[in-house]
Design brief:
homodimer, alpha/beta, 434 Repressor (Amino-terminal Domain), Rossmann fold, 3 domains, six-stranded parallel sheet, elongated, DNA-binding
DNA sequence: CTGAAAGCGCTTACAG
DNA sequence: CTGAAAGCGCTTACAG
């Protein structure tokens, strides 16, 4: 046995008086090993604090028991904080992997231009989870390439028809529709939409479509003047409200395409002396932790990140083991708080 | 060349008409390869989308280029949200690893009882970053064992004298002292401390010591009735204020040992009709993102998570490469907002 | 139930 | 500057 360095299966074999393959079998729980022998081997392994060398076993078996999370950001390539919604997804994915016995490798893709390549190709992971925001059209060709290479991956995002690969996303359309209906029920009629509504941002677009559908259901038409582009930062929401007010737009509610936008919007409204919700109702999307702590609490569309994480991980594991997996949409739920309810 | 599956260095060697070791050298940038040959090899590798098999190279070189983050939680072993402060640390560590060319393996230790063992021992990572909260005394013996085994690790936490291993932490004492002084300057005299103040929670204890020192500096004694135990959750802060009020304690300020506690405390105060900061000033510790969004904004002690992440990663990398690394304390900074300033 | 043999895909002395 | 050889530590047919 090597004194320095970690023990190997050969060390154990010597000590147990068996061959090295028998040690390997015993440790992996093969039924073809004498129970007594196994116990002896296990005891020695335990005593030596032996752990199977993953590099060796992965090399031999050609799979890793590891999943890689590629997190890509577009709008803020600086070191600013990560969107809390994605942080929450990250937490949920991490937990889901752990509970299924997989390791999770995490990478921020803004710092690497070598996308798909780096993980499954270099045998670090069995499959990829893609998570992030940013311009969809820019990433689409990359998805296409992943599919062509036979890489196993799932992504979080809108499941568009003809979409390459497997997507898991929440029901953005329904969420947009429901929260808009809620505002309508509260008597609001001039509802601004803050967020991009183009196919570059499919999730925002779906939310906007839901918004339009709800308006239509109430016999109202969407007013193009009430849509202001915004990416998912407070700053962007703050500026969007500023733009709306400067244009002299008349509005009695704001549907922000994300909570971060909504929180920025609320700040801008407060600063102009407009009361939320008395003068302007505000609602968001995501239900990030801080939504319940702003004052008033922010009404929003909750995305179930825990469920999402589980489904992403389970789908990927099934994909890796050769099963066919369909894209899925997860239902959303309204979380109503003070920002949209006049008492 | 194998049609199915990934290309290997041998495939490239065949195509380039050289031996496999030459391919390996060329790809690793060895100066002992003819430049022309190298270019040819590089081109073929590129074309085949070849990536070095990490399992094979790690097995051969006996190091991984991977760091493992062990995140352990004590108080909430359920699926509740991760403390935003640690989420922020996690983001910062992830970025720091990426920018230094290391992969990051993440594990939630609440789900595994096999601590230290699982990572460096199984050759998945070159070193460990320990991050988390919970009872320090419970984990101390494990740290001791890590040191004995020669495992490379750094931990986030209070750098106590005689502490096993390398710790990086913020200056909890100074932070506690500064924020308490601020309250005193605002004319507060009866300052409650919400949080455990025992050696089970060394960071809270240090904050409490800073609090006592500041009081003493102002000629005041710490009133034991004004210290209420709390762990770092809103619920705990909410309950702590409830307990204080039920005891009929007289207090004009609250120093919560973490922002989460402070936010719970503010909620409890609001519900009882007490105004923040007019009736009771509230301050926290951490400066989590939501601190700036509660109403009024929460005054707090900022821990620089970005710097912390960099130092943790750099320290670990140096440790792994055989250098000696000392424990370090990172300075803190007050972030003052409306919760402690009567206009 | 067990062992001898082969091989996963690299890297690195060693020899030329 | 390049190649033949060895070996990292496993797992898995194959033979008994």
């Amino acid at each position: 046995m090597s004194i320095r360095g970690k023990a190997t299966s050969l060390d154990i074999a010597h000590l147990a008086g068996v061959s090295q393959p028998t040690v390997s079998r015993a440790l992996r729980g093969s039924p073809m090993v004498n129970e007594e022998t196994r116990q002896r081997i296990l005891a020695i392994a335990e005593q030596l604090n032996y752990k199977v060398d993953k590099n060796a076993s992965n090399l031999r078996t050609q799979h890793t028991g590891t999943l890689a999370l590629l997190f890509f950001e577009d709008p803020t390539p600086d070191d600013s904080a990560i969107n809390p919604f994605f942080l929450s997804m990250l937490g949920s994915i991490t937990r889901a992997c752990a509970s299924r016995g997989y390791d999770l490798l995490i990478s921020f893709q803004q710092l690497s231009n070598d996308w798909q390549a780096d993980y499954e190709d270099s045998k670090k992971a069995d499959g990829l989870i893609l998570l992030g925001y940013g311009d969809y059209l820019q990433s689409r060709s990359r998805l296409q390439r992943l599919v062509e290479q036979g890489t196993h991956f799932v992504r979080w995002g809108a499941a568009l028809p003809g979409q390459p690969g497997v997507s898991i996303g929440c029901d953005n359309f329904q969420g947009g529709c429901d929260i808009t209906s809620h505002l309508l029920q509260q008597g609001r009629r001039r509802i601004a939409f803050l967020g991009h509504a183009s196919n570059h941002y499919p999730e925002f677009l779906e939310r906007h479509r839901g918004y339009c559908a709800a308006l239509q259901g109430a016999g109202l038409a969407a007013d193009a003047d009430l849509q202001v582009d915004a990416v998912t930062t407070e700053q962007s929401g703050y500026e969007a409200v500023g733009a709306l007010l400067e244009q002299g737009c008349d509005f009695d509610a704001v549907f922000a395409a994300s909570d971060l936008i909504a929180i920025g919007a609320m700040k801008a409204l407060h600063e102009r002396g407009l009361r939320v919700p008395q003068d302007v109702s505000v609602v968001g999307f995501d239900d990030i932790p801080m939504a319940s702590f702003v004052n008033p609490g922010l009404s929003t569309v909750q995305q179930d990140t825990k469920l999402a994480g589980s489904i992403l991980v389970d789908s990927l594991i099934r994909l890796v083991s050769g099963e066919t997996v369909e894209s899925r949409t997860i239902p959303v739920r309204l979380t109503l708080r003070g920002s949209s309810r006049v008492v």
